[in-house]
Amino acid sequence: MAKLKLDLHDIYNKGYKIDAELNRIIQEAVEKKIRLVEIIPGKGSGALRKTVKRFLDQKHIRNLYHRLEVDSDNHGRFFVHFKF
C-alpha cells in the first residue's frame, strides 16, 4: 500500500509553511489516490500537534479523508486514512 509521509520537525516554527505543507500533502494524496498519509508533528510541547489537529478538523479538509488516527505507541504521529 502506498503511503505519503510528512515530517514537520524542520519547519515547526514557520506557521505559513506548516499550513502550506499540510495542504500540499493532503492534495497530493487526493490527486494520486493514496490511502494513507503519515504526519509527524513530534511530541514537544504539543503546540504543533494542536495546529495539525486544528488543520485536519477544518470542515473542507475533513470532507477529504475518511478517518484520523493518532498512533497509540507515539502520540507525536497522525495517520490520515483516505477511502477511494
Q: Brief overview, please?
A:
Helices cover 38% and strands 21% of the residues. It is of the alpha+beta class and 84 residues long.
Task: Describe the protein's architecture and organization.
The protein is α+β, with helices and mostly antiparallel strands and 84 residues long. The chain is built from three helices and four strands. It has helices spanning 15-32, 47-56, 59-62; strands at residues 3-7, 36-40, 67-70, 78-81. The two termini are 13 Å apart. The protein is globular, with a radius of gyration of 12 Å. Helices cover 38% and strands 21% of the residues. It has a four-stranded mixed sheet, with helices on one face. The protein has one domain (3-81): Ribosomal Protein S8, Chain: A, domain 1. A hairpin with a 7-residue loop joins strand 3 (67-70) and strand 4.
CATH architecture: 2-Layer Sandwich
Helix content: 25-40%
Q: Which blocks of ≥5 consecutive residues have pLDDT under 50?
A: none
Largest sheet at a glance? 4 strands, mixed
Total strands: the figure is 4
Query: How many domains would you count in the coordinates?
Result: 1
Number of helices: 3
Measured distance between first and last alpha carbons: 13 Å
* Mean pLDDT rating: 92
Query: Tell me, what's the shape?
Result: globular
Structural class: alpha+beta
Q: Under CATH, the topology is which? A: Ribosomal Protein S8, Chain: A, domain 1
Kindly report the spatial arrangement of strands forming the biggest sheet: 1-2-4-3
CATH class label = Alpha Beta
**Percentage of residues in DSSP E strands:** 15-25%
Note the run of SSEs as H and E: EHEHHEE
Alpha-carbon Rg, integer: 12 Å
